[in-house]
Amino acid sequence: MFYKKKGLPEENSVVLCTVKKILFHSIFADLDEYEHQEGMIHISEIAPGRIRNIRDYVIEGKKLVCQVLRVDQERRQVDLSLRRVPLSLRTKKNEEYKQEIKSEKLLEYIGKELKLDLNGIYQKMGFKLIDHFGLLGIAFNEIAIHGKEAITELNFPEKEVELLVTIVQDKIKPPEVIVNATLVLQSFSEKGIEDIKEALQEGEKFAKKNEIQVNMVYISAPNYRIEVTSNEYKTAEDELEEVTQVIIGEMKKRKALGEVIRKK
């Protein structure tokens, strides 16, 4: 990757490394995300138990995910551990790095549209996006979901914002989260069917007004399935709660019964 962090990593953080040199009792590895910085892994921090030959575990050029144990700011010395990183965290870090590589390629494409090389587009947009969001991948996901509102604070020129948002939203489709519930709706009046239909319609109107993506399907009396789709789980849950409460409220206005059932 072109982008490298300056300075040193924080203790207890997780970093991606490339093995550079293997000695009898230790490994030296380049910190891939940092500018001109290496770290050391003592033999005791490679794997649990006794190690006879380090090369049974690593070779030069191998990429590792390590935890930062200690940082000496004056000596610029970073001590690392390989054995303390669980598989789940290792997988997450590798996926994050792969996503950043893809995001950098997208940034480079945006730069070409602005007639800038990779360094130029980093200077114009990339560094600001990373400073604000932490990672390019996070920045692009936010832009894909929220459009220009996600980067209002960065004060990019309007034409560049339009280009950035258009390209990102074309290339990145944000993940979807779907949550659902069963609505049990009952009315014992002569126009009971109309009561239920009107209550559901009010729920749909509320969803449309608040830009909530909702789908309602009749299952069998008195059950109706309601689904809400969003980009984030918490948002989807909140929106499902809002829409169902509107429908239940409308049923009560008509002296009818309404209940929400969620699967555990």
- What sort of overall outline do the alpha carbons produce when their principal axes are compared? elongated
First-residue to last-residue Cα separation: 44 Å
How many structurally independent domains? Answer: 3
SSE topology string: EEEEEHHHHEHEEHE
Itemize the secondary structure elements and their pairings.
Layout: E1 14-22, E2 26-31, E3 38-42, E4 63-72, E5 77-81, H1 87-113, H2 118-133, H3 136-146, H4 158-171, E6 177-186, H5 192-209, E7 213-220, E8 223-230, H6 233-253, E9 257-261
Parallel strand pairs: 3-5
Antiparallel strand pairs: 1-2, 1-4, 2-3, 4-5, 6-8, 6-9, 7-8
Describe the structure.
- The structure is a single chain.
- This protein has helices at 87-113, 118-133, 136-146, 158-171, 192-209, 233-253, and strands at residues 14-22, 26-31, 38-42, 63-72, 77-81, 177-186, 213-220, 223-230, 257-261.
- With 264 residues, it is α+β, with helices and mostly antiparallel strands.
- It folds into three domains: 14-85, Nucleic acid-binding proteins (OB fold (Dihydrolipoamide Acetyltransferase, E2P)); 88-171, Orthogonal Bundle (DNA polymerase, domain 1), CATH 1.10.150.190; 177-261, Alpha-Beta Plaits, CATH 3.30.70.1130.
- The strands form two sheets. Strands 1-2-3-5-4 form a five-stranded mixed beta barrel.
- Strand 1 and strand 2 form a beta hairpin.
- Helix 1 packs across helix 2.
- It is elongated.
- The mean pLDDT is 94.
